[in-house]
Design goal:
By secondary structure, the protein is an alpha+beta fold. 44% of the residues lie in helices and 27% in strands.
C-alpha cells in the first residue's frame, strides 16, 4: 500500500501559531525538532513535512482505523533520512501484523509532500 499527501506550507504556518494544534498533532520530539530552527518559515516547512507524512501514513494503512496523530512520530536519522516510529495501540497493531512503513519527505517554497510505503 502507498499513501501520499501534499500540504501548503502557508496553511501550516498559520495553524502552528496555536500551541493547542501543535500539541494535538505532534509528539514532543517532533516539536523540539521543528522548533529548533531559527525562522518561522523553516519551522513551518518542517511541521508541514511531518504533517504530510502522518497523512500519508494514514492513507497507506487505511484498513487500520485507530491511528492517532501522536501515535506516529516522524524524526530523522543523522544522515537526514526520515524515520517513522509508532506508539500506543498503533504500535501494537503494526508489530502484530509485522507492518513496516518507509517514508519520503520533500518540500518546495510553497508545498510539502510525503509518500509512505508499507513494506
Amino acid at each position: 500500500m502507498i499513501g501520499i499527501d501534499i500540504i501548503e506550507i502557508d496553511r501550516i504556518q498559520t495553524v502552528i501559531s496555536s500551541q493547542a494544534f501543535i500539541n494535538r498533532v505532534f509528539t514532543k520530539q517532533e516539536i523540539i525538532d521543528c522548533q529548533s530552527s531559527p525562522t518561522i518559515r523553516v519551522q513551518a516547512s518542517r511541521f508541514a513535512s511531518r504533517f504530510a507524512a502522518k497523512e500519508a501514513v494514514f492513507k497507506a494503512v487505511a484498513q487500520i482505523d485507530i491511528l492517532r496523530w501522536k501515535d506516529i512520530q516522524v524524526t530523522n536519522e543523522l544522515s537526514g533520512k526520515p524515520v517513522i516510529t509508532f506508539f500506543g495501540e498503533t504500535k501494537k497493531i503494526m508489530d502484530k501484523n509485522k507492518i513496516c512503513v518507509e517514508v519520503s519527505l520533500s518540500h518546495s517554497r510553497d508545498n510539502a509532500v510525503a509518500m509512505a510505503i508499507i513494506k
